[in-house]
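User: Earlier you gave me the apo prediction for this protein. Now I'd like the version with dTDP-4-keto-6-deoxyglucose bound, so I can compare the two side by side. Same sequence as before, with the ligand SMILES added.
Assistant: Got it. Here's the input I'm using:
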Amino acid sequence: MSEVLFREGQIEGVQIRPLRRFSDARGWLVELFRHDELVPELYPVMAYVSETLPGVVRGPHEHRDQTDYFAFIGPGDFKLYLWDYRRDSPTYLVAQKLIVGESNAVCVTIPPGVVHAYKNISDRPGLVFNAPNRLYAGWGKKEKVDEIRYEDLSDSPFVID
Ligand SMILES: Cc1cn([C@H]2C[C@H](O)[C@@H](COP(=O)(O)OP(=O)(O)O[C@H]3O[C@H](C)C(=O)[C@H](O)[C@H]3O)O2)c(=O)[nH]c1=O
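And here is the structure of the complex with dTDP-4-keto-6-deoxyglucose:
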């Protein structure tokens, strides 16, 4: 599989939007998503938060049908890796990397077929919020999970540096 070669660029259909931190004497507040800023197809149907320990990577994964809506707001900074693996995409085989989180609070929508992973590059546990447009394992958790996992692929083209 290592013969797959990616070039760096911006991936079609991935949206990266800054999140505004409303800070005051009490602390801060960040809006995570609003239906008036999303197309209906991307309206979240569930949300979860995960903690990732320093130096740890989650992914690479892709979804067949689900769009992920990640919000990286801290604590912690992450290196986010994206690889366009959609044969019908104008940016097929484009890879994109960015630093997100405490130092760059953003939300990122990742369409199906875009392989993704993130690594906590901080020296403390980091949090990531996700509000996807599909239910994990379907209604009542009775369906197959919509994900293709590449973590254990030998000679993987999805390189985490
Ligand atoms: C996503 C999810 C997971 N789980 C359970 C299943 C496992 O027992 C446990 C950890 O889930 P998983 O191993 O799938 O987590 P990661 O492999 O780190 O995947 C995560 O990070 C990568 C980068 C992603 O893109 C995924 O969307 C995100 O789930 O939580 C649930 O019960 N509900 C959920 O919605």
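For your comparison, keep in mind: The chain is about 0% helix and 40% strand.
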